[in-house]
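Running this now, will post back.
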Amino acid sequence: MAKNFLAACLLAASTASAGVIAVPTSPVRISVPTVTSGLPANHLSLNPLSLTPLSLTPSTLPPALIPSPAAAVAAATPSSPHLNVFWDGITPALPLFDAPSAAVPLAGVSVSPLPQTRLAPWLVTSDPKTAAALDRAVVLARATRAGRRALDEASRVLAEQGRSLPVRVLALGRNYGEYDYVSKDMRLHKDLFLKGREVDLAGTLVHELTHVAQHALGVPSNALEMEIEAHLQDLAMLKELGRAPPPNTFARQLFDALAQGPKPFIALIQNAVPGTVFLGDSSFDDIDEQLEQDLEEHSRRAKRSKLSAGLVGAIERDLDLLRTPEGRASYKAFSRRVLALLKRRAAAAR
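Update: finished.
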C-alpha cells in the first residue's frame, strides 16, 4: 500500500498553507520496473515554458539516463505538501507581464482580443494588471476545447456553490499554481505574469480549474485520478495550440510516457505524489486504511499546525463519503472515466 502521502509531505515541507492540492513538473528522470509493454515508465506534468512545435513522435530515452523512482521523488518534491499543486522550475528572466491589447500570436489558433468586460469575473482579484493577465490566459485557453471544458466546468461548479474563486499571486517557489480545497482559493506564481509566459499561465489555470470541478464530484480529496485527468487536460490544450513541452523537462516526460501507454503515465505520477489514494490499484478497504492513517497523523498535529487542522475535516469527509454505497459508486465511476480517457489518449499518442 502507498506511503502516507500527507504525513510524508508535511515532514518534507517546512512551511505550507492549508489543504493545497498539488502536481509536480520539474525536470525529472525516473526508472520503474518494466511493465507489460516492455517500456520504461516516465513522469510528467505540464511545463509549457520554452515550448517547441508539437511532434507526435515520442522521444526515446536511453535507460542510462533514467534514474530511480526515489531520486525522481526527491527531485520533484513540491514546496507545498498536497496534491493539487502544478509545479515546475520557474526562472524569472523577463520583465513584468503587462497584458498586451493584441492577441497572443499562435500559428493556426484563432485568439480573440480582450473584451471590454471580464471573461471570467468569478476569478477574483483586486489588482487590474492581474485581472488583465488572467483575461488573456482565459482567451488563450478558450481557443482550445480542453481549455473551454475546464473553464466551463469550473464556472458551473462555482455558480452552483454560490461562490467566486479568489486568486492570489505569490512567490510559490517551484510551484506554478495551487488550488487550496480547504480555504477554496487559487494561488498562482508571480512569475507566470512575466511577459512571454502567457501559455504557462493559461496551462496552469486550466490545470487548477480542472481540480476545482473535480472537487464537486464526490471523490476523495487526494485521489490520484484527479492528477491524471488534470495532466491530460494540460497536454490536450498544448496539442491544440500546436505546442509540445521542450526536451529535458518534467512535462516532456509525461508527454513521452503517454505515448508508451497508460501504465508508464500512471507510474510517473504515482512516483511524484506518493501516498495519494488510487482506486486503480487499491481496494476500498485499502483506501479506508490509508485515510485512517492520514487522519491519525493530522489529528496529532492539528493543535500546532493550521494545515493539519484544516485537513482533519477534509479527511473525515472523505472517510464518511467512501463508507457509503453512493460515495463508493461515485468514486468508482470517476476512476473508470479517467482511466478510460487515459487509455484513449495513450492510444492516440502512439
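The longest strand covers residues 165-170. More later if anyone needs it.
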